[in-house]
């Protein structure tokens, strides 16, 4: 599989956690039976950590017992393959995980709000909780022009670097772009709602003070200027 993917190998769960701290991965494939820390414990720690819980985990095991399957899923494993398995089978399951991640990132390249249909993109419960928490924090501070990424990461309980990494892994967007697009999407909703707000009032409500910045950014995202958008 190394001809298709960039692969990093760890000998056990302890080494894997160290590698995950240093490198941004798209998927974790782990054997269940490992020395020092088994795959169940590795999966549990990945999913319990707010900084890594969005990483898809695929567990491989020689244990065919349904109890072990349930145990893996309870710890948050996204996929579970019993041995023996064909390489083709593994590649297909891995491809599915990666494609779903790409689908999520494609969605967030156009949207900064979680989809109304929670099952639309196959988010895990933890991913949804993270995104909904971010949405709630931004909504609460939307009109505050001084509210930026540093304040957002602080309220989310993460360091700036960890917040950057988590949000980018999950949505494909860096925090500055995510926050900007969130505001611009809210602006479009306000202009489209027949609420009677003019452009200046909408700018105030979304926390943007510069008219030129608002107009340029809005047109880049929505294809037309705010005033043109409001007349549609």
TrEMBL record:
It comes from Winogradskyella psychrotolerans RS-3. Transmembrane segments: none annotated. The keyword Membrane does not apply. The keyword Chaperone does not apply. The modification 4-aspartylphosphate is found at residue 31. Residues 1-98 form the Response regulatory domain. Residues 132-232 form the HTH araC/xylS-type domain. Pfam families: HTH_18, Response_reg. GO terms for molecular function: DNA-binding transcription factor activity; phosphorelay sensor kinase activity; sequence-specific DNA binding. Keywords: DNA-binding, Kinase, Phosphoprotein, Transcription, Transcription regulation, Transferase. This is Two-component system sensor histidine kinase/response regulator, hybrid ('one-component system'). SUPFAM superfamilies: CheY-like, Homeodomain-like. InterPro entries: CheY-like_superfamily, Homeodomain-like_sf, HTH_AraC, Sig_transdc_resp-reg_receiver, Tscrpt_reg_AraC-type_HTH. The lineage of its organism: Bacteria, Pseudomonadati, Bacteroidota, Flavobacteriia, Flavobacteriales.
């Amino acid at each position: 599989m190394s001809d298709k993917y960039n692969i990093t190998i760890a000998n056990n769960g302890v080494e894997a956690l160290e590698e995950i701290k240093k490198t941004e991965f798209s998927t974790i494939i782990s054997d269940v039976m490992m020395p020092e820390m088994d795959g169940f414990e590795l999966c549990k720690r990945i999913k319990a950590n707010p900084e890594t819980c969005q990483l898809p985990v695929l567990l491989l095991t020689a244990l065919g017992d349904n109890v072990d399957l349930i145990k893996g899923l309870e710890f948050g494993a996204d996929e579970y393959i019993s041995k023996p398995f064909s390489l083709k089978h593994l590649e297909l399951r891995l491809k599915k995980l990666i494609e779903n991640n790409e689908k999520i990132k494609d969605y967030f390249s156009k949207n900064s709000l979680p989809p109304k249909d929670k099952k639309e993109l196959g988010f895990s419960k933890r991913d949804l909780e993270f995104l909904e928490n971010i949405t709630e924090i931004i909504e609460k501070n939307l009109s505050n022009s001084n509210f930026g990424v540093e304040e957002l990461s602080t309220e989310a309980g993460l360091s700036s670097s960890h917040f950057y990494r988590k949000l980018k892994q999950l949505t494909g967007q860096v925090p500055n772009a995510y926050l900007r697009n969130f505001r611009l999407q809210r602006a479009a909703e306000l202009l489209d709602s027949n609420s009677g707000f003019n452009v200046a009032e909408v700018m105030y409500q979304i926390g943007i003070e510069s008219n030129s910045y608002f107009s340029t950014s809005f047109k880049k995202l929505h294809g037309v200027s705010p005033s043109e958008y409001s007349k549609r």
